[in-house]
Write a structure and sequence with these properties.
By secondary structure, this protein is mainly α. Helix content is 42%, strand content 4%. It has three domains: 54 residues, no CATH class; 89 residues, 3-Layer(aba) Sandwich (D-Maltodextrin-Binding Protein, domain 2), CATH 3.40.190.10; 62 residues, no CATH class. Strand 1, helix 4 and strand 2 form a beta-alpha-beta unit.
């Protein structure tokens, strides 16, 4: 075992400061690799058993930032467990995911995760802020992916979300129950409390559906989409004050 007195503290600190400056902005895995290379052959390395050549030979775990609950369990079954079985690389999880936390890690240049589940609108923010690490398609098989999954470049589409209507079967046990977004806002025919997700994108699309807009006409162009969103926002605002009641806490 190396005596710690044999370590040149000043020289080691200088190497670490230089390394930190050179690796600013790298991912966690890239930094760990660079750290091992920088300290190779150094007596300082002996005080960190996990950074020994034997330990370095083992792949560090992949950290996934995901939503919690059932979503996390599904991600483990669909992605994490098959990946570990095939590669031997463990996967650890951070949850629950929020874009605010991801952005904070990026801006602090202190990224703690390797892969993350990002939702639609957040993807455009992440691209504008240069938060995405380039994907290595020499190891990613494009042939098993649909073109739509690759439309963002350095991200792969892995899930889709649906916004559906749910109703109380005790109140409407037969066939006469809400069946459309138009029915959702029809409080004369279907009286009762309504609940909506507190996100403008989802509510705007629901309002457009209620107004009879066809799926193919949702986003015909940027100018058309902006006009449609403006109209729907006005109508949801009007509906929100006349027919939608917030649930009590």
């Amino acid at each position: 075992m190396v005596d710690r007195k044999d370590i040149d503290v000043d020289e080691t600190c200088a190497r670490l400061r230089k390394l930190l400056a050179e690796t600013r902005g790298l991912s966690r895995r890239e930094f760990a690799k660079a750290l091992g290379q920088a300290l190779a052959g150094s007596a300082f390395l002996s005080v960190f058993p996990r950074m020994s050549p034997q330990a370095a030979a083992a792949e560090p775990p992949v950290t996934a930032f995901v939503f919690g609950g059932v979503w996390k369990k599904s991600a483990m079954t669909a992605f994490g467990e098959p990946f570990t079985k095939k590669t031997g690389i463990p996967v650890v999880y951070q949850d629950p995911y929020t874009f605010a936390k991801l952005r904070a890690m990026h801006e602090a240049k202190a990224m703690q995760v390797d892969v993350v589940s990002v939702q639609g609108g957040e993807m455009f923010q992440a691209k504008r802020m240069n938060m995405l690490t380039p994907l290595d398609f020499s190891v990613i098989d494009r042939s098993v992916l649909a073109e739509r999954q690759l439309r963002h470049g350095n991200a792969i589409g892995a899930h889709t979300l649906s916004h559906v209507i749910c109703y109380n079967k005790k109140k409407w046990p037969g066939e006469d129950h809400p069946k459309s977004w138009a029915d959702f806002w029809n409080v004369q025919k279907f009286p009762g409390r309504r609940v909506l997700r507190r996100e403008e994108v989802w509510v705007t699309e629901a309002a457009l559906k209620a107004d009879g807009v066809k799926d193919s006409e949702f986003y015909p162009s940027m100018s058309g989409a902006c006009s449609a969103v403006s109209t729907a926002s006005s109508r949801t605002s009007r509906r929100g004050t006349t027919t939608i009641r917030r649930p009590s806490s």
